[in-house]
Specification:
homodimer; alpha/beta; 8-stranded mixed beta sheet
């Protein structure tokens, strides 16, 4: 090595030193310091530092996130259900006979009290009708079109603006550390895929959701098509979450985030693996900035997104961390400036 | 910029120039020059050159490969079927009563002629028994263990040594150009996942296959488990291939490789998309180095991996390229030196 090369090496070393450890930026600025933030930072550090005994190879770095109530607002009703209810009006234009058939008749009446009282089997009929009978491409376009204008009743914002800033930071932080971020949702897989890439930076192949049947065929011009069918292939909720994870990913995640009893099995499956594992649950305890519902910890009961006392107790037993929206997040939405 | 920085920049430019365009290596050395090789090189060039009107963004770059007969040998019988037949002997140790129950009785008799005559429903019973009743982890271990010793009857090599070198080059070439390589196989998804990463560099989440049901539950120690069930969720063959692609990937591939009528719908779906698309079919016309079967183009008929004359004609009509093993590949296996 001659002196010239030494000089260059020296410059490179100085340059690298000047941009790395000295200027460490907080990757989770909308998280208050506390146990929740610390558990995320610690987990990522011990699984990615090369000299860590709990190091996880990059190919194995999988983290899964429930969507409704974990990444974005799920109250007063799941966005997909609102989409389906509004979609009934579009369907009725093509099929006017729906006006005389329940439960469509009730939905078309616009009677909010009656709609709120629809039974679960009735809602299933509405979902099946609204989510099938078109090509996968047509469905994707319809959902995107609806999301471009539909607004949340309380916040008067697009639904896609109701993602939690602290969770967006978590998604980016995991990805910056070589983790593949997956959504694992009880919502329809195709519904969530329509916006997950734009809204969360999560591509369609990293969305695991409730799977409706699709049927290959040809249109009238002989062009191959995939038509969405009113048939349930996988209910990606509770035990269906680890099942969906195996079907689509085929690896056990190292970390999982959820917010209800529907996520319990995903967290159990994730944290039962060897090595460092992370299980986290968002508790909605901030009625002022978002919503407050449990019924864990004395919070009001809820039909949408139930965080039971049993889940709260299990979290403690299993070493899962409960995230308090009220105490752990200094900002909730991108537009909700401090 | 001072003179020192200029000198460094100059060195870097010289260094980069010395390793790139001047030393272009053929990415497909076991392919003879011809239409097949050219169609692959041209497709990758026009979809990845930034200034190409047919440029495809990296996130959209998906290429799918059938496995049996496209990436590795499928004659005289699919590897997974051989595994299942041999597995019956293991099952009979735990359940001796199988010795008196057909079709297990025939398999256990070792009578090769009788085994070869087993009906399709009988084979389905054998597959269901051999591929279910254990956790997904146990199954993975069993398959790996079997593949470590089981040998092909003609080549006397491990099955995992019977991948086609030209196709291994294609996989690497696509990946080097930012494509995500997926296997889309009629074989069991979990069976292929057990070796796809080691054998092809394809991770579990990029294997789409025939999906058997799995059931979440708990073992006697209360540990969460996923048990494989004898239930067909998706038959990933023919129209099931584009359906499986949508379920797991959620994007239309830009290129697809297959070798039988079971791959036709995948190629139709792939090449019906806008922009540059590539459809390719491997024709087994080399009885000396591998096998020869069609019945397209006057080749002998086959029950395993049928390349019909109709498919051969459709390929021409649809602009798909037929790969002749005999003429397009100068080497077939890694160990089969020229």
């Amino acid at each position: 090595m001659n002196r010239g090369t030494c000089a260059i090496s020296g410059l490179v070393v100085l340059f690298v030193a000047s941009i790395s450890p000295g200027q460490q930026v907080d990757p989770l600025p909308s998280w208050n310091d506390g146990a929740a933030k610390k558990s995320i930072l610690d987990f990522v550090r011990v699984t990615t530092a090369k000299d860590s005994p709990k190091y996880v190879a990059p190919a194995e770095r999988i983290v899964t996130f429930d969507q409704d109530g974990t990444l974005w607002v799920e109250h007063p009703m799941y966005t997909q259900v609102i989409y389906c209810l509004e979609r009934v009006h579009v369907l009725a234009k093509a099929k006017p006979e729906l006006k005389d058939v329940e439960p469509f008749k009730t939905v078309l009446s616009g009677d909010k009290a009656a709609i709120a009282k629809l039974s679960f089997p009735d809602l299933e009929k509405i979902l099946a009708a609204a989510l099938s009978g078109m090509t996968v491409e047509e469905f994707n376009v319809e959902v995107k079109k609806w999301l471009a204008t539909a607004k949340h009743p309380r916040f008067n914002r697009l639904y896609t603006e109701l993602t939690y800033l602290p969770m967006q930071e978590v998604l980016k932080f995991f990805r910056a550390n070589g983790y593949k971020t997956y959504i694992v949702t009880g919502g329809g897989q195709d519904f969530v895929r329509a916006y997950a890439e734009e809204v969360y930076g999560i591509p369609p192949e990293q969305v695991v959701g409730t799977m409706e049947g699709i049927k290959f065929g040809y249109d009238k011009d002989g062009k191959p098509t995939l038509i969405k069918e009113p048939k349930l292939l996988l209910n990606d909720d509770k035990g269906g979450k680890p099942e969906g994870i195996h079907l689509v990913i085929g690896r056990r995640p190292y970390a999982a985030f959820g917010n209800t009893a529907g996520d319990q099995e995903m967290l159990e499956y994730t944290t039962a693996g060897a090595g460092a594992r992370l299980g986290m649950l968002v508790l909605h305890d901030d009625a002022t900035r978002e919503y407050a519902y449990g019924p864990a910890n004395g919070l009001p009961d809820s039909k949408i997104g139930t965080f039971s006392q049993a889940l709260f107790d299990d979290a403690k037993k299993n070493g899962w961390t409960v995230i308090s929206m009220k105490n752990d997040w200094n900002q909730i939405f991108m537009w909700d400036k401090k």
